[in-house]
Amino acid sequence: xxxxxxxxxxxxxxxxxxxxxxxxxxxxxxxxxxxxxxxxxxxxxxxxxxxxxxxxxxxxxxxxxxxxxxxxxxxxxxxxxxxxxxxxxxxxxxxxxxxxxxxxxxxxxxxxxxxx
Amino acid sequence: xxxxxxxxxxxxxxxxxxxxxxxxxxxxxxxxxxxxxxxxxxxxxxxxxxxxxxxxxxxxxxxxxxxxxxxxxxxxxxxxxxxxxxxxxxxxxxxxxxxxxxxxxxxxx
Lengths: 116, 109
Fold this sequence. Notes:
The structure holds 2 protein chains of 2 kinds.
Chain A: E1 4-7, E2 10-13, E3 19-25, E4 31-38, E5 42-49, E6 56-57, E7 64-66, E8 76-78, E9 87-94, E10 106-107, E11 111-115
Chain B: E1 3-5, E2 9-13, E3 18-25, E4 32-37, E5 44-49, E6 53-57, E7 60-65, E8 70-75, E9 84-91, E10 97-99, E11 103-108
Parallel strand pairs in B: 2-11
Antiparallel strand pairs in B: 1-3, 3-8, 4-5, 4-9, 6-7, 7-8, 9-10, 9-11
């Protein structure tokens, strides 16, 4: 593994089903993030984690939950999927969340989710 | 809330120069980032500005004016591979990134 991986690459899901998107990074970054990207709206922050064991809500958290049991993994769960959650989901990580230096966020390849 | 504006689309000829403008109004400011995103791929980091002025990195340069809430990304000697979306993102007072909707640049031969 090099960088950030996400799984699955794409998924078609029936409304009402539960779904977990997986994200793993091997850079030992403290901070991790989940974004959704919709046409014309840009990337919007769903949830974030500044360090293992802590999580926070972003701009559009409703209908999503996250956990951060360790440094490497940051899964995103849709408890009961709805069609408005059809989107491309990107996981990202950065060395820290405290604005130390550049603190660039690096993105995974994305998961394309369609909810019917 | 955060407000980040950039043009939706731009078209330019191979070998030319294109300037993508970004204006922002955010709660606090801790730096401005530019990312490149090819269709169907992840955003990749291009540049970072936290102080006023110009940052040059090869064919790409980025400028920031904090007092005006303004940045631009300058792409020189355009190549076909530069056809992509360019995302302006501002790190706010809570150290969270807010993104503009992106500018799609099409390079024509």
